[in-house]
Amino acid sequence: MQRRKLEEVLDVYEQRLGDSKYLAGDEFTLADLVHLPNCHHIAESGRFRYLLESRRNVWRWWSTISSRDSWQRVVRYMKTVEDEHKLESLLELRRKRRGAVVRQVRKDPRKHIIAKSETV
Fold it and tell me: Which of 7, 69, 74, 80 is the most exposed place for a label (fewest CB within 10 A)?
């Protein structure tokens, strides 16, 4: 259902972009800017990329706005943040795996040794 709605919107964009370079005319405006994050998600997904590629004018528009230097810097920054998050998650997982080490602790020398779980 939502894909069909998106297809309808993109069809309107396809028609509009047949008459102008950008959504609101021949200048890059906020109307184009606000589409960058969502279109980036669509373009990067293997499953839905065809929604943009199958519309010649939409694909031209997307290629134009997504190749802007400012957007390319944002994409690089997002990738860096994503990579750092993955690394932090991996390190946290390793810490958790090493954290529950069983050590022998003698509570009372006259009694048996008991096992106590400690975080190292």
Answer: 69
Provide the total of helices (H) and of strands (E) in the chain, helices listed first.
6, 2
| Same domain for 100 and 44 | no
Token pair, residue 103, equals: 């050590």
Examine the pLDDT at 18 and tell me if it is beyond 60.
Answer: yes
- pLDDT tens for residues 99-112? 755 455 556 656 55
- Which of 77, 78, 118, 76 has the alpha carbon at shortest distance from 99? 118
Q: Answer yes or no: do 20 and 42 share one domain.
A: yes
Q: Give domain status of residue 6, yes or no.
A: yes
